[in-house]
Amino acid sequence: MENFIEQLSKEQLVEVERQMAMYSLGVQEIIPTEELKNKIAKSVLLNNPLKIKLGLDPSAPDVHLGHTVVLNKLRQFQENGHIIQLVIGDFTGKIGDPTGKSAARKQLTDEEVKFNAKTYFEQFGKVLEMEKVELHYNSKWLSNLSFEEVINLAGKITVARLLERDDFEERIALGKPISLHEFFYPLMQGYDSVVLENDIELGGTDQHFNILMGRHFQEKFGNEKQVALLMPLLEGLDGVEKMSKSKKNYIGIDEAPEEMFGKAMSIPDELMKKYFELATDLPPEEIKIIIKELFSGELHPRDAKMLLGTTIVRMFHGEEAAEKAKQQFIAVFQQGSIPDDIPIVEWQGEKQVPIVELLTILGLQSSKSEARRMIQNGGIKINEEKVLDIQLVVSMTDNLIVQVGKRKFVKIRLN
Amino acid sequence: MENFIEQLSKEQLVEVERQMAMYSLGVQEIIPTEELKNKIAKSVLLNNPLKIKLGLDPSAPDVHLGHTVVLNKLRQFQENGHIIQLVIGDFTGKIGDPTGKSAARKQLTDEEVKFNAKTYFEQFGKVLEMEKVELHYNSKWLSNLSFEEVINLAGKITVARLLERDDFEERIALGKPISLHEFFYPLMQGYDSVVLENDIELGGTDQHFNILMGRHFQEKFGNEKQVALLMPLLEGLDGVEKMSKSKKNYIGIDEAPEEMFGKAMSIPDELMKKYFELATDLPPEEIKIIIKELFSGELHPRDAKMLLGTTIVRMFHGEEAAEKAKQQFIAVFQQGSIPDDIPIVEWQGEKQVPIVELLTILGLQSSKSEARRMIQNGGIKINEEKVLDIQLVVSMTDNLIVQVGKRKFVKIRLN
């Protein structure tokens, strides 16, 4: 590729540097940085927008905060006039898993794909200006590939290169089978880039291999190579695993304000910095101050987390809803009934327990007759609901909260 | 598969055993033997012919004796009423090598494929009854496979299984690249069997892996599995390498009778047994006697080879031509000018040597003047051609024969 940087005027160079600084923020890896800069230079010089690709799984249209890490980055490109290309990987969705083994790869109908895409679109609209976004379905080109064209595509990559992918390498090492068709998923993603002629492909670091396939195939087909822009993965509420729907550790961007706020409050303190940086739209300078004050002790972790929760709710539901969610949280969880340091009981007993028995076993009441009286007086709550039936059989679940009067609580933990 | 053997009458069992004995003759490997027997039993019981598949490379239509090993086996099946399915692998031929690296995989036009198939047909007619043979072009089904169907096919095989193929294993070990498209050649051959629903596939032992692919995919597609019938590879005239056109160590079945006979006479003695067994149509009992007498010394190796040569020529040109070729060979090489135990001279000198000098250096004439006289009297021959020019400069080549009078010979060997 021609060197466009050396052709820039001083003002143009300033603009290129400004964009580079913006896109680099929070990024895990740019492959390679110089090419990104040169592409931006070309775009500034020729006044041509860049094409930025993001591939989407058509089977899981529930967008959560983990997705917004990439969406926020896309928004930056969009703000500078570049073109966002969303690619729905519907070809894979439509063919399903040929071995029938993977429940995750269930076969989707045309209607399901269209419905899921629509769902994406509605949700993405909270971050991106959707009327400026290009939407592509990769079945449009992939389903028409002939066997000959597939062979031709396969002829442009070696088996050794494909086996370098982490999960393949691992499975080979463990002697676990890899079906040959699995080699085609990275090929398809790469070929999408050949067709779309995009300049940049965005994704999480787990897309490292697949996005480099785009570079590989664009080059093999004689195109300009895309730059890979890899974003860190956001851990979920558990603070350990990548946020995902299947792990149930996610904050969906369509969730109700109170739910969203409550979930944000539940993340481990150590993750706050990452959430502020990757999952909010606060200006970088403001984030820096928050983190500094948090570390120096000027800002209490609870207050910082409140700010995080408010910001996240505000992004998807607006200022008013955010404030309301915050107030409600304070009402219920701080001033309200359940403090957040209540004793936890590891429950090893039966799964179905009569309420009277439960109260005595947990030591919340000294006798069954006392327990019965307390129920009749309306002094017992299970999960904040008053128990009125002394015959009630309680189904023991994880995080069940048993409350006696105003101040006595026990939280159940199941193993 | 149902057990058909136990359903046979006594006479039917005799017939099955007869066919089994015939098909097993000279075979390297049957995978598995019991299935072959059961398939024959089914065919005898239901009076249904079996389908026997042979795949053909569309790029090399010159049939040589090496091919006839398999053709002779096919003829046995045909004689028992089974159906021969010849599959021209024209799909691969038409797409060529997508990497452009392999000269062997040059792209063929429709016309070339048709022409080559016709050539096969004409030549195979010398061994098989062609009007009873089914001819298939695999492009008919392969070129119409969609990407989805290719993925489905690829989903039925693991990468590890493909990497077991000897040449892949070797290249992985040597760090030599394997292009992904190469994985598809065995898949195609396997899929051909799915489409053709053949009972047996024949091939040389070098087709072991590919033919087992047919079994694999037929099973994966829910069909009855084909039996692999692998024939030994016939070494060429050099006695070392597999007979092949590129190695120039072959006897083409379209060659002239004399050429054929001469080439047959040139094979190493140790190979005679294999040639008799694999490349002639002599009855097994007769071959056994020949080999026994050859080993005991009752039959002179030269006579055995004459018999081999006559038989081979007779198979492709008829009795009369065979006898004529034999007589001509005897006239030229035995009674004729050049005995086969003439002295050999390792030539280290110039490559261009005046004839007069050559005769003295070789010690065939005691002086140059004597040599000149001998030439003028017509007593000198080079490679059986009379030398008339005393100024002749001889180009020294390997196997050049210099003859003086009727009985003095020297054969030149170059290093």
What value does the Rg of chain A take, in angstroms?
Answer: 26 Å
Structural class of the secondary structure composition of chain A? Answer: alpha/beta
Largest interface: A-B, 37 and 36 residues
Give unreliable regions of chain A as ranges: none
For the secondary structure, the number of strands of chain A is: 13
The CATH architecture of the largest domain in chain A can be given as: 3-Layer(aba) Sandwich
Q: Tally the structural domains of chain A.
A: 3
Shape of chain A: globular
Helix content of chain A: 40-55%
Major β-sheet strand ordering of chain A: 1-6-5-2-3-4
Sheet having the most strands of chain A: 6 strands, mixed
Oligomer type: homodimer
CATH homolog superfamily of the largest domain in chain A: HUPs
Number of helices of chain A: 18
CATH top level class name of the largest domain in chain A = Alpha Beta
Binding site for ATP (chains A, B): 245
Motif ('HIGH' region) (chains A, B): 58-67
InterPro entries (chains A, B): aa-tRNA-synth_I_CS, aa-tRNA-synth_Ic, Rossmann-like_a/b/a_fold, S4_RNA-bd, S4_RNA-bd_sf, SYY-like_C, Tyr-tRNA-ligase, Tyr-tRNA-ligase_bac-type
Domain RNA-binding S4 (chains A, B): 353-415
How does this model look, in words?
The structure is a homodimer of 415-residue chains. Chain A is α/β, with parallel strands linked by helices and 415 residues long. Helices cover 47% and strands 13% of the residues of chain A. Chain A has 18 helices and 13 strands. In chain A, the strands form three sheets. Chain A has a six-stranded mixed β-sheet, sandwiched between helices. Chain A has a five-stranded mixed β-sheet with strand order 7-13-12-9-10, with no helix packed on it. In chain A, strands 8-11 form a two-stranded antiparallel ribbon. In chain A, a hairpin with a 2-residue loop joins strand 9 (380-382) and strand 10. In chain A, helix 12 (257-265) crosses helix 16, helix 13 packs parallel to helix 15 (301-317) and helix 17 (355-361) crosses helix 18 (368-376). At the A-B interface, helix 4, helix 7 and helix 8 of A face helix 4, helix 7 and helix 8 of B.
